[in-house]
C-alpha cells in the first residue's frame, strides 16, 4: 500500500514506536519567539539541562514588538511597554545564555517567525518543524511536517530533540480547477473552514491537493496551511513540486552545492503515492469559491461576499442558537444582514497568514489611485518581515499605500493578536487579513471580520465590505 | 507535575461551544515570563466588566454578575463542564496554567482541541471527553442541583455522579500513566537518550544539511 506525504514524513522521523501507541518523533527545526519560550528556558535552568542540539534552533522576536518606526529605531530598551520589554530582553538573555541563534529586533531579517522561517530557508521541505505557536502549520506549505506546541513541549524539544506523540490520521482536501480572478488562498482556507468547521480537522493532518493548490504560489500555500489550525488540524501539508524547489533554492540557509542536489533528490519524493489511503477526503470545485468574509466570532462563521448573516431559524440545536445569538450580540449585527451592508472602521493587513510580498502587492493593486474611505479611522499595513518591507518599498508599494491613506509599519504580529500597541478599541469593527475572529482577539471588545488582503483593501477604500471582483482594476 | 488519581469537586459551567484559548486567558497576560499567577485572569474578558491589565490586582475590579464563575454557588469549583471543541485556537499553555491556578483539575466536554488537550495533561489538568448526550445530562443535573459535585477516578477511568452512577471515559494510556504518577515527559524521554543518539547519527549522514548551525 502506498504512503501519504504525512506517512512518509512521520516514518522518516520515527525514533521509537512504543507498545502503548505513542512514538518518539525526531524534530529537525525548532523556532522560538519571546512569548512561549521563557518558562521553557526557566525549566531547563531549574533542571540543569542544556539544549540537545543547538543547530536545530533559531529565535526571533515578533509577538510583542512595536510596529511604530520611531519606537523601533530607538531599540528594545526604549520600548514603552515595560512588560513587553522584559519579555523581549528575556528572549535575548536566554538565547545568549543557551547559545541559541537569534535574529535580533533591529535586524533586516526580523519578522513574524512563520514569515522569517521559509524566507531564510530555516524551514525546508522534509523537515519536522515545531514552534510554540499554533500557526506553525504554515510551514507545511513546503512539504514539511509542522505543528504548534505548548511551552512544556518547547522545553521537551530543547532538552531531547524529540516529541512524544501519536500518529494523526490522513485527510485529503482536493480543490479542483483554477481559482477565479480575485479569489485567493485565504478565500480557499475560509471556504474549507466554513464547510468542515473549526473542529473538522481535529485528529488529522490535512493535505491540500488538486490543481487549484498546485497553481498557488508559495505565499498562497503558506496562507492556506497557516489556517489548517483554524480547521482544527495541527498540521496542513502540500506536496513538494517545482514551485517549492524554485522557492527554496538560494535561500540563505538552504543547502548548497552537493547538499542541494542530494536534498532536491530527496525532496522530490515528498508527495503522496497514487495508491495512498486517506481516512477522510473532501473535494471542492474552485469555481464555487468566492471571496469570503467572516461575520461571527469563530472562523467557521463565514459566508461569500454576496451572502448574509444566518437566521436563528436556520440553526439546528440549542447550542447553535445560543452560539449565533451570542456572536450577533458581540458583533453588533442582525440576523439575515447582508455582508455588503457591514461597514468596518478599521482595516488591518498583516499577520502570519497574509503579510508576505504577494499580499502587500494585492492590497496595493486595489489601493492604487484610491483613497481610504472617511469612515475608516485606521488602515494598517504591517509587512511580515524586514525583507518583505524592503521588497515592497523597492516596488513602490509603500508609496501607493501611503498615498491612499494607509499606514506603513515595521514588521511584527501586530493587530492579529494585539499584544503590542496595535489594537482595536471596544466596538471597533475591523476588516482583517489575520486568522482569528475570536472575541477580544484584536483588542478588548473589538470585532473582527476575516478576509483576504484584496478584500481588506477594497473594504478600506469603499468603507464597507464589497466584492473586490467588481472593482475596476480587478475585472 | 501535579499527580491526578481520584478527585472530587464542585462542578461549574462554561456553557458554550468553541471556547478558545484567547477566551481562557487573553493575550495581554501572555507577557508574563512565569508559569503561575494566571488564575485571577482566567476568562478575564467574561469575568470582569473592565479591561484587564497584567500586574493589576484583580480584587478591586468590577465583576460581571452574569458570568457563572462569579455566582456564589460555583465558588470553589474544580471541575469545569464545557461544550464542543473546548480550548481551540492559540497553542498558549497559559490556558491550562490559568485553569489550574484558578483551582480546576478537570474539564469535561464532548470534544477538545488537540494542542490544548496535550498541554492540559502536562499540567495535571485532566480533559475528559464524553458523548454530548451525557454532557447535556450533566449540564441539566448541575443546573438543577446546587452544590452539584462529581468524582473522577482516573485509575478506573470513571466519572462518578452524586447518585453513585458511573460513566466510563477514554484516556490515552500513556497520558493516564503520567498523570497517575505525576511524571514529567522529559525524564521519560531521556531514558531513550541512546535511541535518540543512534537515530540522530544515521539521520545526519543521510541529511547533513539539517545539522549546520544557523549562523545569524
Automatic annotation (TrEMBL), chain A:
Enzyme class, broadest EC rank: lyase
Gene: leuC
Protein name (database record): 3-isopropylmalate dehydratase large subunit
Binding site for [4Fe-4S] cluster: 352, 413, 416
Function, in words: Catalyzes the isomerization between 2-isopropylmalate and 3-isopropylmalate, via the formation of 2-isopropylmaleate.
InterPro entries: 3-IsopropMal_deHydase_lsu (IPR004430), Acnase/IPM_dHydase_lsu_aba_1/3 (IPR015931), Acoase/IPM_deHydtase_lsu_aba (IPR001030), Aconitase_4Fe-4S_BS (IPR018136), Aconitase_4Fe-4S_dom (IPR036008), IPM_dehydratase_rel_enz (IPR050067), IPMI_cat (IPR033941)
Keywords: 4Fe-4S, Amino-acid biosynthesis, Branched-chain amino acid biosynthesis, Iron, Iron-sulfur, Leucine biosynthesis, Lyase, Metal-binding
NCBIfam families tied to this protein: leuC (TIGR00170), PRK05478.1 (NF004016), PRK12466.1 (NF009116)
Family affiliation: Belongs to the aconitase/IPM isomerase family. LeuC type 1 subfamily.
Pathway(s) of this molecule: Amino-acid biosynthesis; L-leucine biosynthesis; L-leucine from 3-methyl-2-oxobutanoate: step 2/4
Any GO BP annotation: L-leucine biosynthetic process
SUPFAM superfamilies for the chain: Aconitase iron-sulfur domain (SSF53732)
Record's keyword annotation contains Membrane: no
Gene3D superfamilies: Aconitase, domain 3
PANTHER family in the record: 3-ISOPROPYLMALATE DEHYDRATASE, HOMOACONITASE, MITOCHONDRIAL-RELATED
Cofactor binding notes: Binds 1 [4Fe-4S] cluster per subunit.
UniProt KW 4Fe-4S keyword: yes
Organism ancestry: Bacteria, Pseudomonadati, Pseudomonadota, Gammaproteobacteria, Cellvibrionales
Every Aconitase/3-isopropylmalate dehydratase large subunit alpha/beta/alpha domain range: 7-463
Classification via PROSITE patterns: ACONITASE_2
Known catalytic reactions: (2R,3S)-3-isopropylmalate = (2S)-2-isopropylmalate
Cofactor(s) this protein cannot do without: [4Fe-4S] cluster
MF annotations from Gene Ontology: 3-isopropylmalate dehydratase activity; 4 iron, 4 sulfur cluster binding; metal ion binding
EC assignment: 4.2.1.33
Pfam families reported in the protein's UniProt record: Aconitase (PF00330)
Subunit structure: Heterodimer of LeuC and LeuD.
Automatic annotation (TrEMBL), chain B:
Pathway(s) per entry: Amino-acid biosynthesis; L-leucine biosynthesis; L-leucine from 3-methyl-2-oxobutanoate: step 2/4
Alphabetical UniProt keywords: Amino-acid biosynthesis, Branched-chain amino acid biosynthesis, Leucine biosynthesis, Lyase
Subunit structure: Heterodimer of LeuC and LeuD.
Catalysis: reaction(s): (2R,3S)-3-isopropylmalate = (2S)-2-isopropylmalate
Function: Catalyzes the isomerization between 2-isopropylmalate and 3-isopropylmalate, via the formation of 2-isopropylmaleate.
Keyword ATP-binding: no
Enzyme nomenclature, EC number: 4.2.1.33
GO MF, one example: 3-isopropylmalate dehydratase activity
Chain's gene name: leuD
One annotated Gene Ontology cellular component of this protein: 3-isopropylmalate dehydratase complex
Protein known as: 3-isopropylmalate dehydratase small subunit
Keyword Amino-acid biosynthesis: yes
InterPro entries: 3-IsopropMal_deHydase_ssu (IPR004431), Aconitase/3IPM_dehydase_swvl (IPR015928), AconitaseA/IPMdHydase_ssu_swvl (IPR000573), IPMI_Swivel (IPR033940), LeuD (IPR050075)
Family: Belongs to the LeuD family. LeuD type 1 subfamily.
Lineage top rank: taxon: Bacteria
Alphabetical GO biological process terms: L-leucine biosynthetic process
Catalytic class of the enzyme: lyase
Domain Aconitase A/isopropylmalate dehydratase small subunit swivel: residue ranges: 3-131
Organism from which the protein derives: Luminiphilus syltensis NOR5-1B
Amino acid at each position: 500500500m502506498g504512503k501519504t506525504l504525512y506517512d512518509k514524513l512521520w516514518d522518516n522521523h520515527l525514533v521509537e514506536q512504543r507498545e502503548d501507541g505513542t512514538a518518539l518523533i525526531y524534530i529537525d527545526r525548532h523556532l522560538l519567539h519571546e512569548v512561549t519560550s521563557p518558562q521553557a528556558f526557566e525549566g531547563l535552568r531549574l533542571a540543569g539541562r542544556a539544549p540537545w542540539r543547538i543547530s536545530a534552533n533559531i529565535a526571533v522576536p515578533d509577538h510583542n514588538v512595536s510596529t511604530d518606526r520611531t519606537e523601533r529605531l530607538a531599540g528594545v530598551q526604549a520600548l514603552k511597554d515595560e512588560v513587553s520589554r522584559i519579555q523581549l530582553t528575556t528572549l535575548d538573555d536566554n538565547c545568549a545564555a543557551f547559545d541559541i541563534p537569534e535574529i535580533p529586533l533591529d535586524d533586516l531579517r526580523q519578522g513574524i517567525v512563520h514569515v522569517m522561517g521559509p524566507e531564510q530557508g530555516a524551514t525546508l521541505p522534509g523537515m519536522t518543524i515545531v514552534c510554540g505557536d499554533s500557526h506553525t502549520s504554515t510551514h507545511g506549505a513546503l512539504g514539511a511536517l509542522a505543528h504548534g506546541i505548548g511551552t512544556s513541549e518547547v522545553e521537551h524539544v530543547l532538552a531531547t530533540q524529540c516529541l512524544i506523540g501519536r500518529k494523526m490520521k490522513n485527510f485529503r482536501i482536493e480543490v479542483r480547477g483554477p481559482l477565479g480572478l480575485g479569489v485567493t488562498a485565504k478565500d480557499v482556507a475560509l471556504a474549507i473552514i466554513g464547510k468542515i468547521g473549526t473542529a473538522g480537522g481535529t485528529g488529522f493532518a490535512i493535505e491540500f491537493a488538486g490543481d487549484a493548490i498546485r497553481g498557488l504560489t508559495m505565499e498562497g500555500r503558506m496562507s492556506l496551511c497557516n489556517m489548517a489550525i483554524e480547521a482544527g488540524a495541527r498540521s496542513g501539508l502540500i506536496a513538494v513540486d517545482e514551485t517549492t524547489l524554485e522557492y527554496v533554492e538560494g535561500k540563505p540557509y538552504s543547502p548548497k552545492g552537493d547538499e542541494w542536489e542530494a536534498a532536491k533528490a530527496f525532496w522530490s519524493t515528498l508527495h503522496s503515492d497514487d495508491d495512498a489511503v486517506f481516512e477522510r477526503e473532501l473535494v471542492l470545485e474552485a469555481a464555487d469559491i468566492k471571496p469570503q468574509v467572516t461575520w461571527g466570532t469563530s472562523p467557521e462563521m463565514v459566508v461569500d461576499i454576496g451572502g448574509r448573516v444566518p437566521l436563528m431559524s436556520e440553526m439546528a440545536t440549542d447550542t447553535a442558537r445560543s452560539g449565533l445569538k451570542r456572536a450577533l450580540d458581540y458583533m453588533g449585527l442582525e440576523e439575515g444582514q447582508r455582508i455588503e451592508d457591514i461597514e468596518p472602521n478599521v482595516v488591518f493587513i498583516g499577520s502570519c497568514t497574509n503579510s508576505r510580498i504577494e499580499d502587500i502587492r494585492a492590497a496595493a493593486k486595489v489601493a492604487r489611485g484610491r483613497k481610504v474611505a472617511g469612515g475608516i479611522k485606521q488602515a494598517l499595513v504591517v509587512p511580515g518581515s524586514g525583507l518583505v518591507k524592503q521588497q515592497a518599498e523597492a516596488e513602490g508599494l509603500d508609496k501607493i499605500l501611503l498615498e491612499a491613506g494607509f499606514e506603513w509599519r515595521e514588521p511584527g504580529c501586530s493587530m492579529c493578536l494585539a499584544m503590542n500597541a496595535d489594537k482595536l478599541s471596544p466596538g471597533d469593527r475591523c476588516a482583517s487579513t489575520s486568522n482569528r475572529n475570536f472575541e477580544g482577539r484584536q483588542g478588548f471588545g473589538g470585532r473582527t471580520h476575516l478576509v483576504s488582503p484584496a478584500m481588506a483593501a477594497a473594504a478600506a477604500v469603499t468603507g464597507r465590505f464589497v466584492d473586490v471582483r467588481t472593482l475596476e482594476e480587478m475585472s | 507535575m501535579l499527580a491526578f488519581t481520584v478527585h472530587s469537586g464542585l462542578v461549574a459551567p462554561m456553557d458554550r461551544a468553541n471556547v478558545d484559548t484567547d477566551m481562557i486567558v487573553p493575550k495581554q497576560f501572555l507577557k508574563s515570563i512565569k508559569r503561575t499567577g494566571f488564575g485571577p485572569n482566567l476568562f478575564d474578558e467574561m469575568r470582569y466588566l473592565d479591561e484587564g491589565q497584567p500586574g493589576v490586582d484583580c480584587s478591586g475590579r468590577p465583576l460581571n454578575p452574569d458570568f457563572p464563575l462569579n455566582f456564589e454557588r460555583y465558588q470553589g469549583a474544580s471541575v469545569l463542564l464545557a461544550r464542543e471543541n473546548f480550548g481551540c485556537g492559540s497553542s498558549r499553555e497559559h490556558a491550562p496554567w490559568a485553569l489550574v491556578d484558578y483551582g480546576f483539575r478537570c474539564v469535561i466536554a464532548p470534544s477538545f482541541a488537540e494542542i490544548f488537550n496535550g498541554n492540559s495533561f502536562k499540567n495535571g489538568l485532566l480533559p475528559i471527553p464524553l458523548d454530548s448526550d451525557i454532557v447535556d445530562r450533566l449540564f441539566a443535573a448541575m443546573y438543577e442541583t446546587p452544590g452539584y459535585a462529581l468524582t473522577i477516578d482516573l485509575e478506573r477511568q470513571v466519572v462518578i455522579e452524586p447518585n453513585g452512577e458511573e460513566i466510563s471515559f477514554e484516556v490515552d494510556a500513556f497520558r493516564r500513566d503520567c498523570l497517575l504518577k505525576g511524571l514529567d515527559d522529559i525524564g521519560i524521554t531521556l531514558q531513550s537518550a541512546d535511541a535518540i543518539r543512534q537515530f540522530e547519527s544515521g539521520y545526519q549522514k543521510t541529511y547533513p544539511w539539517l545539522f549546520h548551525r544557523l549562523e545569524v
